[in-house]
Amino acid sequence: LFVFARKSVIQLDLANTKKALIVPAFETLRYRLSFPKSKAELLSMLDMGTLFTFRYHVWTKGHAPTNFAKWRTATTPYRVEWEADFEPYVVVRKDCPEYDRRFVGFGWNKVAHIMELDAQEYEFTVLPNAYMIHMPHAPSFDITKFRSNKQYRICLKTLKEEFQQDMSRHYGFAALKYLTAENN
């Protein structure tokens, strides 16, 4: 991954362009896994059910725009468009927008960051030979709070609405899609 990502950073001129390089994410439910040494090996594990696209069972739309069906056969980087709740793992320039500090703990940190990148007209480019695998672990304290505490979810909803309003004020008409995406 790191070798391919480093080459992609140079080839795609990340230092001088507004690109967010998407590293497709997968997951396993197994606590022990031999990390695939190639894309072909990863695809075999995916077909056998050893791996899944990231959060396929619980939050499909977070990574769906990556277009995993296209990634399976892609040999060159390809562009994807922002969609509501998109939260891929990305490689970006150091001077990109920072994560919004309102979103700490669990909930909407990556979604808000990707939304901000989109508002600043970053191009989302999927790397065809890069991938990451999320390993199972115990739930974090914050996700446990999110799942069990109604007040936590109400606060997060308020922060999301505040963020979307700020986006609208800062980016004007172009940011209307972020306000309406939540309601569709």
TrEMBL record:
Primary site of residence: membrane
Locations listed in the record: Membrane
Chain segments annotated as transmembrane: none
Keyword entries, A-Z: Glycoprotein, Membrane, Signal-anchor, Transferase, Transmembrane, Transmembrane helix
Membrane-topology annotation of the record: Single-pass type II membrane protein
GO CC list: Golgi apparatus; membrane
GO terms (BP aspect): protein O-linked glycosylation via mannose
The name this protein goes by in its record: LARG1 glucuronyltransferase
A Pfam family reported for this protein in Swiss-Prot or TrEMBL: Glyco_transf_49
Entries under InterPro entries matching the protein: Xyl/GlcA_transferase (IPR051292)
Gene Ontology molecular-function annotations: glucuronosyltransferase activity; xylosyltransferase activity
